[in-house]
Amino acid sequence: MNDAAHPQSAAGPSTVSGLQARARRVLAHLDAVLPDVDALYLDLHEHPELSGQEARTAAQVARRLEAEGYEVSRDVGGHGVVGLLRNGDGPTVLLRGDMDALPVEEKTGLPYASRARTEDGAPVMHACGHDVHTACLVGAAAVLARSRGAWRGTVMVVGQPAEETLQGAKAMLDAGLYSRFGTPDAVLGQHTAPLPVGTFMHREGVTMMGSAHVRIRLFGRGAHGAQPELSVDPVVLGASVVLRLQTIVSRELSPLESAVVTVGHFQAGSRANVIPEEALLELTVRTEDDAVQARVLAAIERIAKGEAAAAGAPAPPQVEVVNRGPVNRNDPELLRRVRDAHAEWFGRDALVPGVLVTASEDFPFFARGPEHPVPTAYWYLGITPRKTWEEAPGATPQEKMAHLPGPHSSRYAPDRAGSLRGGCESLTVAALACLHGGDASPDH
Ligand SMILES: [Zn+2]
Ligand SMILES: [Zn+2]
Question: CATH number of the domain at 210-325, please?
Fold first, then answer.
């Protein structure tokens, strides 16, 4: 059994009070660090960068990690940043924050709202809260660096690019993240959620569904709109593919298996009186299980080919899986450790019962170690201002969240001070729950 399963078994206090004392000692530095965390957050919020273009954000992260004494590597799998702090014998704990923004026009009305545009004029906004993640990552890295007497082990800070396109984590791993910097014993990540600020949500097992983006190109035979007998109409073919795809979830899966198949893009033709030659469908697939994902993808291909054959298409369709994110599954032991640590630090009342999120993440790629799976834990950080939460209609958290702007909304507006403090503390406390205890000497 590797060390990660019992990160504290070799040395250091593993008692509840031991963690409290260490967390108090490390987080005593937080008040000194928070003004810079806030400055970084504002800067990132006003200067969001799309997936794959995070050069400015990455430079800010790298500079701050260096200033705290981390060994920093830049451009790991795109704009990825890796900071290492080796601090004696003990487990290696990877802290991950994603850095990219979305092509969304901000409508929060905040004084620091993004007015950023790409060179083509498209609006850009941190609508998924990755600016919170990145600022808190730097904050946790800073307090850990300033309290090296309180813990032992290695902290690996990862500023990840291109999460929204589900490419960045894999790109960093493909660029040798684990072979160059070591395979971690635990990987920790958090995401903002429209829960009340100061609350945290953990879910055992699958916490987010796996996703796949599928593109189907259907080939027909074009003709004058008045002469359908000369055509193989790809619009009709595409329509029957769309309808038949609905039977995957309703007829091919068990009622106990969850999946979503959505055709979000259907494009064909340009004129009312021209039967086009092709149709393009783009789909998103969400599943709670990687094996179900494989079955759904196989069914999509079978249906596209079968319908094309039935229509007499001149060529079989091209079915391409553009990208694919695995299910985000928490390691049971690590998740329990993190949740217990959060319960101890924030109080049991700060934890809300976990629900499965149908959105997806590329975080689970970090579980792919070269030799064996790496334990990962991922939790949600509440960011909705208390007053906004109380005024939202609904009796249950789910009803309230349905009325509140969530990730990817142009009105997603985290409570600034509360989210930053909560995010720094939750990441730091989770890291300490995995690292070994330190000595009694004062911090430097
Ligand atoms: Zn997102
Ligand atoms: Zn996100």
Answer: 3.30.70.360
